[in-house]
Fold Chromosome segregation and condensation protein, ScpB.
Amino acid sequence: MTGEADPLTGGETVAADSPDEHEPDENEPDPDERHAGGSGAEDDAPRPPLPALVEAILMVAENPVPVTEIAVSLGVPATEVEGVLVELALEYIADGRGFSLRDVGGGWRFYTSEACAPWVERFVLAGQSPKLSQAALETLAVVAYQQPVSRGRISAVRGVSADGVIRTLTARRLVEEAGTDPDTGAILYRTTDYFLERMGLRHLDELPPLAPLLPGIADVDDIEGP
């Protein structure tokens, strides 16, 4: 760039910058930012097939996941998701996998296959005491088959107080309060959705028929008391 003599100072004046040398406009993106701040790798990567996405979601879910929840998260119709779930469940059975996909407790979840269950149970319970005592199992059975039922009726069937056991079952989310008896005011209890999940049931009507040899439980409706 050549300077010109200043008639006042005798020095040289500097010519104005050419348009090519102007400073960047504020609104013009920084060249470095164009490379570093673009779309992420996940935006550029191809979308996995729907069956793979459904499997991935169920793999990290702690509870059964409803079809609608999966459909909304993936942005696909619920009918399409349900079809994929059914196909996957049948595929696992046909392949003899060690797990199964089942619609239980209001949603879909992976479970150990029935054939592998005894070995898995042996592994899980190795060196551990049973999760529920015999008293807790008996009480849970009474609630499951006679719900909603009060603690007094449970105690009458079992012949011992059910207060402590009910607290245990409530703490473990297997039973919950279900209002009060309109006649006595006693708190009533019923099983929870978590109970259905742990039992592998969709509805209470899938409970097996009550064994006739269980004394007292079949006649619990005849027992009066709070």
Residues 7-11, 13-22, 31-41, 215-226 have pLDDT under 50 and may be disordered.
